[in-house]
Amino acid sequence: MKQRNRKEVSTCSTRSSPRGKKLLSWLLSMVMVLSLLPEMAIHVHAAYEDGMECPGCGHYHWDSHCCGNCGSCSSDCDDDCYEETHCISCGACRADGNFACDCGYCYFCAKQEEPEKHCDYCGEEDDGGICSECGLCSECVTDFEEVHCSVCEECIAGGLRMCNEDHSHPSGLESAHCTGESVVCEKCNGCFFEHEDDYCWDCELCQKCALDNNKHCFECGECSSNETPCEKGSEEAGGYTVCETCCMSYDHHCSDCYEHVNFDDYDGVEGWCSDGGHGTHCSSCAELTRCLQCERCWDCAGLDLCDNCGLCEECCRENTETMRCDHDYCVESSDYEDHLCPDCDECSGDDPCEFCGRCAS
C-alpha cells in the first residue's frame, strides 16, 4: 500500500510541478508545428469501397491513381493503361476528344512532335502522305481541291499557279488544275480542261470562237485543217465556212468532176446539165455524155451508149428502123452488114434463102 501510494504521489507531482507543465507545453507545440508542414501531413487512407475499377484495364484503384476525367489509370499507376488513354507528352485525357489518331499524342502535341506524319488540318497520321508544302494529308488534299493540281499533284504553297486565277471556264470547272494543264482558247482565253469536246486541238480555239472566226464548217463543225473548205459554197452561205463534204451532201457539186456548181446557174458553162438538172453533173461534163444525133444527155436520161455508132440506144434503134430492118442490129455493126440481101442490100427479113441468103424479093 505504501509503495502504490508513493507512485501516485510521484505522478501527481509531475503534472503539477512546473517542470512537468513545461514538458507538456513543448510537446503540444511540436505537434502543432509538424501538422502545418505538407511533408509531414498525416494521410487519411480511403476505404476499399471508395475506390473504382479502371474501364480500360480493370485495375481497382483509389484517389490520385484514378483519372478524374475518364476514371482510367492515372500517371501515378505503374501500368501501360495510362499511355493508352492519355497523351504520352502532355497527359491530356482522350475523353476530351483532342485525339485524331492512335499515335499516342493528342492533336496539339502530334503537330509539334511529329509534324511530318500528321495533317495540319485533321491531325490524322499519314506516314509518307503529308505534303511538305501545305502540311495536309492526301485525304484533306482531295477535300480542298484548290490546294493541289488534280493532274500533276503539285501544291500551290510551292508557288504553283492554278488555272482559275488566269482563265474562265465557259463549260464549267470539274477538277482543279494548274495553268500547265490548261486547255486554253487563243481567242476568248477560256479554259476547256475536261471539256475537250468544246475545244479544237487543231486550230486551238473553242468551238464557238472557231465558228465565229470561220475556222470550222458551220454545218458539221469540222476544222478547216481536217476538211477542205469549199470557197464557192462559203460565198453562197453568206461568208460562213462550208466544207466540201457538206457542200457535196447538198448536191452542190458535179457528180463527175466534183466541181462546185452555182445553184442558180442552169445555162452557163458552169451550170447544171439541162437534162439532169441540179444534183447531177455540170454542163461541161454533160457535153461528154451528149448524143450527137438527138443532143440529149444519155447519162441523165438513163440510156446506154451504142459501142458501134456512138449514139444513144434510142437513136441507134431509130436508125435501124429507118433502114426497114426489124432486127436488133446497129446499122454500123458487122452483124447488120452480114444479114443484108446480097442483091438489094436491104434486110433479108426473117426467112432468107438458106442456100444463097437472098431475100424473098
Brief characterization of the structure:
With 361 residues, the protein is mainly alpha-helical. Helix content is 25%, strand content 2%. A hairpin with a 6-residue loop joins strand 1 and strand 2.
Task: Describe what this molecule looks like in 3D.
The chain is mainly α and 361 residues long. It has helices spanning 2-16, 18-36, 81-85, 107-113, 138-143, 207-212, 231-236, 244-249, 283-286, 313-322, 334-338, and strands spanning 52-53, 60-61, 199-200, 205-206. It is 25% helix and 2% strand. Mean pLDDT is 79; it is low at 1-15 and 40-44. β3 (199-200) and β4 (205-206) form a beta hairpin. The protein is rod-shaped. It starts with a helix and ends in a 23-residue tail after the last helix.
Protein traits:
two-stranded antiparallel sheet, 361 residues, mainly alpha, disordered N terminus
Shape: rod-shaped
Low-confidence stretches: 1-15, 40-44
* Main β-sheet, spatial strand arrangement: 1-2
Order of helices and strands: HHEEHHHEEHHHHHH
Helix content: 10-25%
Number of helices: 11
Tell how many strands the DSSP assignment holds: 4
Distance between the termini: 207 Å
Fraction of residues in β-strands: under 5%
Mean pLDDT: 79
Give the SSE layout.
Layout: H1 2-16, H2 18-36, E1 52-53, E2 60-61, H3 81-85, H4 107-113, H5 138-143, E3 199-200, E4 205-206, H6 207-212, H7 231-236, H8 244-249, H9 283-286, H10 313-322, H11 334-338
Helix pairs in contact: 1-2
